[in-house]
Specification:
Oligomer: heterodimer
Structural class of chain B: mainly alpha
Structural class of chain A: mainly alpha
Largest interface: A-B, 53 and 54 residues
Shape of chain B: flat
Radius of gyration of chain B: 21 Å
Order of helices and strands of chain B: HHHH
Order of helices and strands of chain A: HHHHHHH
Radius of gyration of chain A: 20 Å
Number of strands of chain A: 0
Chain lengths: ~200, ~110
């Protein structure tokens, strides 16, 4: 007999699963983030290998813009702060405050992407491309992959800010958990940038 | 408030304090970079501050400080493999990075 997908309930989306002590979405996102650590880890180790094995390496701060990257760091860290406050707003039962903080988080992501676009266009205008040298190859690969992650996070956050928030009326606990899971992803993207910033711009 | 809703004022204050610390550490790491320290101490300072910032985000924003043990198993394994990944990459360049030379399996010196 086929299960009725319309009424079938996904288990442990809000209740704690006894054997793991976690909801399934939370365990799922942590496993996904572990795989993401290895994705970025492989690129960081490529950076370590290529830089330590290079006969010469450019002074990175002379090639890239430290002030722009500092601004982007401040924007992304602040958006991580507003993201966790969006989740806290739901815990305190306020959808309006959730919308405010989530809106600020999305704006932060958009601001980060705009600054990144300025950075990229500046490099291209000076004929600095991924093929120019190993450093720029690594810079564009690492920051490009990170920017894709920011973009994906923005789409997810935008969904929860807009149509996805309808779940708040029917299943508030489940919606709060969804936002927490989206937040874990967003904070991870922030953590990756926390390492990219000194490694690519300051050292 | 919905069912189960509770006052999060104290939590939010904590998040704001963490946010302030993260922004301060960002300014410190940028300030130190303008000192143009030699490479080894510069790497040490920058990565130590980055680790501190990442720990703050993970502990407080991602709530790892109060997370269940099940989360730490995959994360612990990932951390071990991640460190190995970086360590092996650096090991291959150890001769000029750390002034060591790899000694071959039979006591000879590798070319």
């Amino acid at each position: 007999m086929k299960p009725d997908l319309a009424t079938m309930e996904i288990p442990y989306t809000t209740d704690i699963r006894p054997d793991t002590g976690l909801t399934n979405p939370k365990l799922g996102i942590w496993l996904f983030l572990a795989s993401e650590v290895m994705l970025f880890g492989s690129l960081f180790s490529s950076y370590a290998l290529l830089r330590s094995g290079a006969a010469s390496w450019p002074h990175q701060a002379d090639v890239l813009s430290v002030p722009l990257a500092t601004l982007n760091t401040i924007i992304l860290i602040s958006s991580s702060g507003t993201m966790v406050m969006a989740w806290a707003a739901l815990k305190s039962g306020s959808l309006a405050r959730f919308r405010l903080y989530m809106g600020l988080t999305i704006l932060g992501g958009a601001g980060f992407m705009v600054v990144k676009a300025f950075e990229y266009s500046d490099k291209f205008s000076h004929h600095l491309y991924p093929l120019t040298n190993n450093f720029l190859g690594l810079y564009f690969t690492l920051t490009g992959l990170h920017a894709i992650h920011v973009l994906v996070g923005m789409v997810v956050n935008l969904y929860f800010w807009g149509p996805g928030a309808a779940m708040w009326r029917t299943e508030p606990r489940r919606f709060t958990n969804r936002v927490e899971v989206a937040g874990l992803y967003w904070h991870f993207v922030d953590v990756v940038w926390i390492f990219l910033f000194p490694v690519l711009y300051l050292l | 408030m919905t069912d189960g809703a509770h006052d999060t004022t104290v939590e939010v204050r904590g998040y704001l304090a963490v946010l302030g610390a993260l922004l301060l550490l960002t300014l410190i790491t940028v300030g130190v970079s303008y000192l143009r320290l030699p490479e080894a101490p510069a790497v040490l300072v920058a990565l130590t501050i980055a680790l501190g910032k990442a720990a703050l985000v993970a502990m407080f924003f991602m709530h790892l400080k109060s997370e269940k043990p099940m989360v730490f198993w995959p994360l612990g394994l990932t951390a071990v493999v991640f460190v190995a990944l970086i360590a092996f990459a650096l090991w291959t360049e150890a001769d000029h990075l750390f002034g060591t030379r790899f000694t071959g399996a039979f006591g000879g010196v590798a070319p």
